[in-house]
Amino acid sequence: MERILEIYSRLRPAKVFADIGCDHGLVAELAAKNALAEKIYITDISAECLKKAEKLLKRFIDVGTVESVVCDGFSGIEEPVDEALIAGMGGEEIVKILSSSAYRCERLVLQPMKNPEKVRAYLVGNGYKILEDVTFRDVKYYDIVAAERGEDELSEEEILFGRTNLAERPQAFIDKVKAEIEDIGEYLKNPMNETSRAALTARREKLRGIL
Ligand SMILES: C[S@@+](CC[C@H](N)C(=O)[O-])C[C@H]1O[C@@H](n2cnc3c(N)ncnc32)[C@H](O)[C@@H]1O
After folding, report:
1. CB-based burial of residue 195 (10 Å sphere; 0-12 exposed, 13-18 middle, 19+ buried)?
2. Distance in angstroms (rounded) separating the CA atoms of residues 36 and 57
C-alpha cells in the first residue's frame, strides 16, 4: 500500500485524469474518493484486469465520474487527458504507450518497474520537464518520475539515476546504490568472461562515484 500512496501523492488536481494500465484500480479509487478530477478514466489492455477496478469503483462509474475503457494505452480515450498515471510497467512499455499517443498530456506521473533511464530520456526528448525523479522503498525499491510539458535537459548521470536523486540524495536511493554495489561485488566472485567482468566493474565504479 505504501507504493500506492507514494504514487497518489504525486498526482495533482486535474480536469481529466487517466490511470493507464490501472489493473486493481487502487490509485484511481483514491483519486475518485478525493475528487482529484472531474473525470477519471481507468484503462487496461486486459478486460480481465480491468474488471477488478470496475468492481472497486462501481459507485463512481454508476454516477459517471469514472469511465472504464479496455484499450492499449490512451487509444480508447476520446478527450484530452490533463494528467495521466502509468505505473507498474517496464520503462520500455511506458515509452511505447506515450509515443503511440497523438495527444500530449499536460502532466505525467510514471512509475517504471525497470529501465527508468529510458523513460527519463524519452520525456526530455519529447517536450517534458522533469519535476521530480526519485527512488522510494516499499519492501522493494521503486522509481517514480513526475513531469509536465516544457523544456528540459538532463546530464548522462541524471538520465541514469534521476535528477532529484542526485540533488537531494534520498535515503532510499543511497540504500539502493549501496545494495547494487554489494550485489555486483558478490556477482564478481563468480567465473565470467572478461567483457562481463569489465562491464560490471565499470558499473560498480560509477555507483561508488555517487556515494
Ligand atoms: C503490474 S500491473 C500495474 C497496475 C497498477 N498500475 C499498479 O501500478 O499497481 C500492469 C497493468 O498494465 C496493463 N497493461 C500492460 N500494457 C498495457 C498497455 N499497453 N495499455 C494498457 N494497459 C496495459 C496490464 O494488463 C496490467 O494490468
Report:
1. exposed
2. 14
Residue 104 confidence (pLDDT): 86
Query: Which residue's CA is the nearest one to ligand 1's atom 1?
Result: 88
pLDDT level of residue 1 (50, 70, 90 thresholds): confident
Q: How far is CA 144 from the centre of its chain?
A: 5
The response to whether residue 53 sits with its C-beta less than 6 Å from ligand 1 reads: no
Q: CA-CA distance, 77 to 100, in Å (whole number)?
A: 13
Residue 71 C-beta-side C-alpha neighbours within 13 Å: 18
Q: How far apart are CA 42 and CA 20, in angstroms?
A: 6
Length of the chain in terms of residues written: 211
pLDDT tier at 83 (50, 70, 90 boundaries)?
A: very high
Residue labelled with grid coordinates 522533469? 130
Query: What is the residue-wise DSSP string for 11-43?
Result: ---EEEEEEET-TT-HHHHHHHHTT-EEEEEEE
